[in-house]
């Protein structure tokens, strides 16, 4: 499979996952909810993998960072509307205050800073900036784990087993935190990320001929969240769907 196929799988898995949040709000232990969320666990690792590939192959990394930054801002409001979260961070807690797109943006920014030759002479300053950027993703969906996973996976790019070894301990750590502070069901469902290995093993290293696929994903992510948000209001009223 090429990267466009991977993105399509991520989109389908993500939609199933978010529909489960709509049909079974609060991340319940209903069997169908568990199955849908297990499928949904494919989404994040595929995104992380594609970010590594995208950062490596992009012709203009600054434009890539800017595009992800704009995408993260738009997605923040769509994410909050979708799940009934106030758009002002920390209004309802410290977890899941913005979408996973913010950690993706931060991860690419950190990779770029790490490659920046200007900051090579000021390593202490670079490390402080990177540390602060990584922690800024803490309140987001997938938290700092998404940033750290992408950084680790990028260092092992081309070695899928090595990438999994970098990713899985971080996901386990995320699951431990989720088990004690967020949702035990959510923590247990994270085992679904293991499903991504056979999928990524089919990747052939090609982007694919459908250049529109990249823009389709950028449009689809906030669009499907807005639709779920509208359905949320029609079905339940202005209540939160998460935990």
SSE order and pairing:
Layout lengths: L2 H21 L7 H10 L2 H15 L3 H23 L17 H15 L7 H14 L6 H13 L4 H22 L2 H6 L6 H5 L11 H24 L8
Describe this structure in words.
It is built from eleven helices and no strands. It has helices spanning 3-23, 31-40, 43-57, 61-83, 101-115, 123-136, 143-155, 160-181, 184-189, 196-200, 212-235. Helix 3 (43-57) crosses helix 7 and helix 4 (61-83) runs parallel beside helix 11 (212-235).
Number of helices: 11
**How many DSSP-defined strands?**
0
| Rg from Cα | 17 Å
The rough form would be described as: globular
Summary keywords:
11 helices; globular; 243 residues; 0% strand; mainly alpha
Short account of what is shown:
This protein has 243 residues and is mainly alpha-helical. The protein has helices at 3-23, 31-40, 43-57, 61-83, 101-115, 123-136, 143-155, 160-181, 184-189, 196-200, 212-235.
């Amino acid at each position: 499979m090429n990267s466009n196929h991977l993105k399509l799988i991520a989109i389908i898995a993500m939609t199933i996952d978010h529909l489960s949040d709509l049909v079974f709000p609060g991340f319940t232990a209903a069997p169908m909810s568990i199955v849908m969320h297990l499928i949904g666990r494919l989404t994040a690792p595929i995104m992380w993998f594609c970010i590594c590939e995208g950062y490596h192959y992009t012709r203009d990394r600054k434009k890539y960072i800017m595009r992800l930054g704009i995408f993260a801002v738009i997605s923040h409001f769509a994410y909050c509307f979708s799940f009934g979260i106030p758009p002002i961070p920390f209004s309802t807690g410290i977890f899941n205050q913005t979408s996973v797109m913010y950690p993706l943006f931060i991860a690419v920014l950190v990779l770029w800073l790490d490659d920046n030759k200007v900051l090579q002479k000021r390593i202490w300053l670079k490390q402080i900036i990177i540390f602060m950027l990584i922690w800024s993703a803490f309140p987001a969906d997938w938290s700092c784990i998404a940033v750290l996973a992408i950084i680790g996976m990028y260092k092992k790019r081309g070695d899928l087993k090595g990438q999994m070894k970098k990713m899985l301990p971080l996901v386990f750590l995320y699951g431990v935190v989720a088990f004690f502070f967020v949702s035990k069901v959510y923590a247990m469902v994270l085992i679904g990320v293991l499903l991504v290995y056979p999928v990524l093993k089919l990747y052939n290293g090609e982007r694919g001929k459908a250049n529109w696929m990249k823009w389709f994903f950028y449009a689809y992510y906030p669009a499907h969240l807005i639709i779920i948000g509208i359905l949320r209001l029609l079905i339940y009223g202005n209540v939160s769907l998460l935990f």
